[in-house]
């Protein structure tokens, strides 16, 4: 019986420890300025000691680049290495539609404590040439490009969270902050019936109308990716009151089961 309890205790301890992870997210700051944050799913017990971090951002192939990386952890410098679509296809990786940018924080020391769900600022960067279509997203560790690159493009978050050993605690990109649609950087009042999602007036001071020919659900998200409100579209329409929100940029994320549509709105 004692052996049974011992085995159970070891199993539960292992299960608890394995649940301590960090997600990564892309946060839109303004215009074409962005930052990447780490989001823990646990409260730290005292300080954690961040060693090194890596991840890879995907952009449409062509003239759009990542520039001006600025580390947001004190006295830590990031490097960014581009692998364009031509190089990747020459290595038998990808379909020629993606350029990837590998961000790396070399081994060092950053001491900090955090709460579960807190956004830990890692690095700020800019996207060039003002794209208005396509998207930016994380390259998944399960992507064939990553798997074929021999670990060079892997995402990881190496830290010592309990004063024992440093290990990788990265889990996955955050479900809300895993990508950014560049089309949201143009503020449009979409009222043409050919659109599957109409959002107006835009800019808005009070009541925002959300209209779609398709049934689905929507979320109102702030510029940091935090969900403010959610609802559904039935009988083609929903109206939400934004008068209590602060002025600024928000996003409507509409999901109709077949795809996701995002609209940028401006609260006056």
TrEMBL record:
Domain Secretion system C-terminal sorting: residue ranges: 199-265
InterPro entries this protein is in?
Secre_tail (IPR026444)
Q: Which keywords appear in this protein's UniProt record, sorted alphabetically?
A: Signal
Question: Any keyword Cytoplasm?
Answer: no
Q: Where is the signal peptide?
A: 1-19
Q: Which NCBIfam families match?
A: Por_Secre_tail (TIGR04183)
Q: What is this protein called?
A: Putative secreted protein (Por secretion system target)
Name the species this protein comes from.
Answer: Xanthomarina spongicola
